[in-house]
Amino acid sequence: MPGIALVTGTSSGMGLVAAVDLARAGLTVVATMRDPQRAGALRKAAAAAGVELDVRQLDVTDEPGMAACVEGVLRDHGRIDVLVNNAGRGCVGTAEQLSMDTVREQLEVNYLGVVALTKLVLPGMREAGSGRVVTVTSVGGAVGQPFADAYCGAKFAVEGFMQSLAVVAERFGVWVSVVEPAAVASDFVGNVARPPEEPGPYDGLLAAYLARSQAAFSSAQSAADAGAAIAACATAETFAFRWQTSPGATAFVGMSLADLDGERVLGATRTWIS
């Protein structure tokens, strides 16, 4: 598949794999990250795969910087055919433990930055009559989870935005999709923001949740498999709005999408903090 792909969050994990796999598929890949000095693992993976990547700086919380990056890609490559919104950050904490600054940060990284970057590429795709916008959300974009209030809130928001956009964009030949991984073995866990470590009324519940999460990530899907699923969505010959990266993710998301009164999800997640 020829074309130009812009991928965010490619310094590690799923984003790194997706960037390399898209280059293997024949796309010219602009692999972006907040700090290009952390591109060592990406460059090593690209070399091992026998592909070349155009590595650039992009911070999804910096709107002028995003505009400059997109302008540079259009100037140097002429177009953007595929956007993969992969950059994101997790957050652990229930409502009382979260500062509003933390909530805003989650929205900036996981929602507003995605919206801003999507807006920047849409005019060119619309004028070309083709394009793909792939946003990596999470099963947390369909299933609300204990102590993930801010994170799931931002992921729910971005899924709602993209699902609303999808039917309008497709009238102009642009496919809009979301990819929903479950637990993935990557640096994502290490980058999760956590509440202050001080005694409080939620200690026992949080300890149970963290123990459950640790068990989930100990048997997590590999970043290679999840990244390959993202690349497969971006290069698919047929359109689907919603993609999952594993059978476990499909079952988990399906539990929520078929849960008309919400009790099925609440019944499942109550056990996480027992």
Describe this structure in words.
The structure is a single chain. This protein is of the alpha/beta class and 274 residues long. It has a single domain, classed as NAD(P)-binding Rossmann-like Domain (Rossmann fold), CATH 3.40.50.720. The chain has nine helices and nine strands. The protein has a seven-stranded parallel sheet, sandwiched between helices. A two-stranded parallel ribbon has the order 7-8. Helix 1 (13-24) runs parallel beside helix 2 (40-49) and helix 4 packs parallel to helix 5 (149-169). The longest helix has 29 residues, at 100-128.
Topology, pairings included?
Elements: E1 4-7, H1 13-24, E2 28-33, H2 40-49, E3 54-57, H3 63-77, E4 82-85, H4 100-128, E5 131-136, H5 149-169, E6 174-180, E7 184-185, H6 203-218, E8 221-222, H7 223-235, E9 242-244, H8 247-257, H9 263-270
Parallel strand pairs: 1-2, 1-4, 2-3, 4-5, 5-6, 6-9, 7-8
Helix pairs in contact: 1-2, 1-7, 3-4, 4-5
